Amino acid sequence: MTKTVEFYFDLGSPATYLAYTQLPRICAETNSQLTYIPMLLGGVFKATGNASPAMIPAKGRYMFQDLDRYAKRYGVALNFNRHFPINTLLLMRAVTGIQLRQPERFQAFVDCLFTALWVEGKNLSDPATVAAVLNEHGFAPDGVLALTNDETVKAALKDNTETAIKRGVFGAPTLFIGNQMFFGQDRLDFVEEALRQV
């Protein structure tokens, strides 16, 4: 029986970016299905009373040092984005819209945005910068913007976020294997272990 990893994510989380770089390999090696579920981390924080570690200066400094250690371990690029934290509402609506309307382009879309944020350090709070990134990767900015205003897309992101909260999600990344919840990219070893269990 194929196991499924449900990956609740928001582009604005550097820890989520790191998990994103590793999950496809883990799922391939364990013959598991990876399901991406976009959510709005700001909505999760508001509902749960949680906040970004970056809001506490000492914790924020440590977090980025620790994430850098993991990036080196994984062999992936990670650069601190000086615009962090950013409001990801429009970005996550766009991600949700692409997932719903152009699923065949979803992976490429998420790839280009994660790279822009956490490798290139671009300011994706700036519409002109977002448009430039999308153009560079073959996405029509006007079409993507239209998706962010689509009521079905808005509702889907809201529903995903509300479902996440009901399931006990308080931050990102959060992963589920059945009813087992795993929070944080530093728990991927437990995710892999659970997937290997018969």
From TrEMBL:
Name of the protein: 2-hydroxychromene-2-carboxylate isomerase
Catalytic activity of the protein: 2-hydroxychromene-2-carboxylate = (3E)-4-(2-hydroxyphenyl)-2-oxobut-3-enoate; RX + glutathione = an S-substituted glutathione + a halide anion + H(+)
An annotated Gene Ontology molecular function: 2-hydroxychromene-2-carboxylate isomerase activity
Enzyme class per UniProt: isomerase
Domain of life: Bacteria
Entry annotation: catalytic residues: S13
Organism name: Pseudomonas shahriarae
Family per similarity comment: Belongs to the GST superfamily. NadH family.
Record's keyword annotation contains Lipid metabolism: no
Domain called DSBA-like thioredoxin: residue spans: 4-195
Keywords, alphabetical: Isomerase, Transferase
This enzyme's EC code(s): 5.99.1.4
GO CC aspect terms: cytoplasm
